[in-house]
Amino acid sequence: MKTxxxxxxxxxLLMAGMGVxxxxxxxxxxFSVNESFTGGTKADATITDVDRMSGSYNEATTITxxxxxxxxxxxxxxLYFDVGTLHxxxxxxxxxxxxxxxxxxTYDLYALYQGGGTFVTTDFGTATESTEFTxxxxxxxxxxxxxxxxMNNDSNVNPLNNGTPGTGGSEPSTGGAFYSVxxxxxxxxxxxxxxxxxxxxxxCTGDNNCGSYGVTSTFNLVDNxxxxxxxxxxxxxxxxxxxxxxxxxxxxVGIAVDATTYLLGSQDSExxxxxxxxxxxxxxxxxIGLGLRHRKQAK
Length: 299
Prior knowledge:
The protein is mainly β. It has helices at 7-18, 230-233, 277-294, and strands at residues 21-22, 25-26, 31-34, 46-50, 52-67, 72-87, 93-95, 108-122, 130-136, 144-150, 188-193, 195-202, 211-218, 220-221, 234-236, 243-250, 260-272.
């Protein structure tokens, strides 16, 4: 499934809203990670000057309320994001699964997210039906982002059989709960966060490339009492960025009360530092919402 969102457009809109520019161009926020604590024999285990993470995700979204007359409703969503690659703005990429080219280093990164918000559907039940989603701070039943390092690259979620809950999968029964992850005994919690704001839209249901989203969350490195800390992995800048920006696409959510839709897609995540997360992120995502509304639908 190809990425629907045009990442440079989303990033540009957000950075423009924050006033982050350099020589007339949008400045990509760079960061560095240190892979040494994950093992391997690579002499220099620091990956420097990357600007984003990409990977695939599994998502469960539940419509918790809906008024067909007004088109207004509420939703809860849960997401498991498996980071596959770190990217440099100069074109280099680092595949986390390719241990042979990286001195035997083998690990993975993944995130769990749960949030919620409101939506408005127009032309419900017609060929021109469309839905605008708004992610709200504090609206999720858990409302939390958890970011992990999987030290042995063995943690995973099992896909549902035919999308049916209770048939051996790790998906939650509703979007109000976290995914269940297997083999987590060696995983290290690197960061915690919560929803700041976000927007999404969809123009169909069920099919590929139905919708796209952009969500900001706070991102706070964890100081674990025992073992490694978040700052052992995310080593630059210091202090590290306090906002994570995630953009991606989805298949299309069924608009019906108590209906839970299980989705697959791809996501990019980046980091930014802002002095006032709520006000500036809201400004950025006002622009993102405008950009998403006018983007060309990818096929």
